[in-house]
Structure formats: C-alpha cells, structure tokens
Design a protein that fits this description.
Helix content is about 100%, strand content about 0%. By secondary structure, the protein is mainly alpha-helical.
Length: about 120
C-alpha cells in the first residue's frame, strides 16, 4: 500500500515538474516573440523616420525652388517697371523739348512779323 501511495506521489510530482517545465517553455517562447515584435516595431519606426526625413528634405527643396522662382519673377517685374518708367520719362522730356521748340518758333515768327511791320 505504502509503495502505491509513494508511486502516486512520485507521479504527481513528475507531472507537476513537467507542467512547470512546459509553462517555462511557453513563457520563454512568449518572451522571445515579444522581443521579436518589439525589434520589428523599432525597425519599422526607424524606417518611417528616415522616410519622413527624406520627404521633409524634398519638401524643403521644393519650397526653396518655388521661392527662387518667385524672387526671379519679382525681379523681372521690377526691371520691366523700371524700363517703363524710364521710357515714360524720356517721352516726357521729348514732349517738353518739343513744346519749348514750338514756343521759340512762335516767338521768332512774332519777331519777324514785327520787323516786317516796321519796314
């Protein structure tokens, strides 16, 4: 009888130990899985970060290009305006000169008429 009880006890103990071992194994597996997942996540994050950086750089470049283009356009416009102003000024000067010449001619005619009248 005693032997049977001992056997039973031993069996139970063995079972317990086996269970413990199994549990440990499962736990280890779980831990490994978790670690792997974390690693994967980290790598993914890193990749995402790099991608984002690249995108940002591209955007910045584009913005710079746009700004440059705008500046060029503005400069061109300014130049055009200056040219127009110069042209206008020239025209005005020409007109003034023409008026002065006309006045002088009128004066000459008047003077000539006076001379004729005297003669």
């Amino acid at each position: 009888m005693m032997m049977m009880i001992m056997m039973l006890m031993m069996m139970i103990m063995m079972m317990m130990v086996m269970m413990m071992m199994m549990m440990m194994m499962i736990m280890m597996m779980m831990m490994m899985m978790m670690m792997m997942m974390l690693m994967m996540m980290l790598t993914m994050l890193m990749l995402m970060m790099i991608m984002m950086m690249m995108m940002m750089m591209m955007m910045m470049m584009m913005m710079m290009m746009m700004m440059m283009m705008m500046m060029m356009m503005m400069m061109m416009m300014m130049m055009m305006m200056m040219m127009m102003m110069m042209m206008m000024m020239m025209m005005m000067m020409m007109m003034m000169m023409m008026i002065v010449v006309m006045m002088m001619m009128m004066m000459m005619i008047v003077v000539m008429m006076e001379k004729k009248r005297e003669a």
